């Protein structure tokens, strides 16, 4: 019954429940809600250290739960993890673990993940926080400490770069192969069909008259010749 009650609580109420009672079930509910999306985000931002970073992150949250001061817990989690990621960027790279090797193979096997990994660090962070973590642009701008207009432009540039990395500049991903084949066929020149010259037809200015053809000369002869008319 108590577990069902925890399940129905909001993130902020769960955190308040844990802060006041230190009930491990409340913490476990928060962990179950956010462990997978936080780990995916962390792995795509720092593959080598994602395992150790996430272990340290959850341990700190368990020992020292935050005071939100009206902030959403989801925004606080990603903001705090982003600070941890930035603090390790200049540090030494740790030896890659077995889990890191598995994740590396997954990234190399996925065209989408590989395309995202090619983005610059800030652009990749904005792209992931918006598309993967479902944060608002205003929250992301606060995390990156940039203006909202700059954040929006970085997101648009990131989407364009991912599309280019996936499909190149010529292929339009929103067009099917059938549509592209039809358009290519329409661009081909229509072959010219040569027509045979028509034979001119004989035209007689005097129209059609009854008569016979003289087999000797090939000229037409009338029924009543001029000689016969004179005799008459």
Structure, described:
The protein is mainly alpha-helical. Helices cover 62% and strands 2% of the residues. The protein has helices spanning 2-8, 11-21, 24-45, 50-63, 73-87, 98-109, 111-117, 121-131, 137-144, 148-167, 177-187, 226-231, and strands at 212-213, 220-221. The longest helix is centred in the first third of the chain and has 22 residues, at 24-45.
Short note summarizing the structure:
The chain has 232 residues and is mainly α.
What are the key terms here?
two-stranded antiparallel sheet; single chain; 12 helices; elongated; 232 residues
How do the helices and strands line up, and which of them pair or pack?
Blueprint: H1 2-8, H2 11-21, H3 24-45, H4 50-63, H5 73-87, H6 98-109, H7 111-117, H8 121-131, H9 137-144, H10 148-167, H11 177-187, E1 212-213, E2 220-221, H12 226-231
Antiparallel strand pairs: 1-2
Helix pairs in contact: 2-3, 3-4, 3-5, 6-7, 7-10, 8-9, 8-10, 9-10
Portion in strands: under 5%
Mean pLDDT: 80
What structural category characterises the helix and strand content? mainly alpha
Helix content: 55-70%
The shape is elongated
Radius of gyration: 42 Å
* Multimerization state: single chain
SSE sequence, one letter per element: HHHHHHHHHHHEEH
Distance N to C terminus: 136 Å
**Spans with pLDDT under 50 lasting ≥5 residues?**
215-219
Profile the largest sheet: 2 strands, antiparallel
Q: Give the count of helical stretches.
A: 12
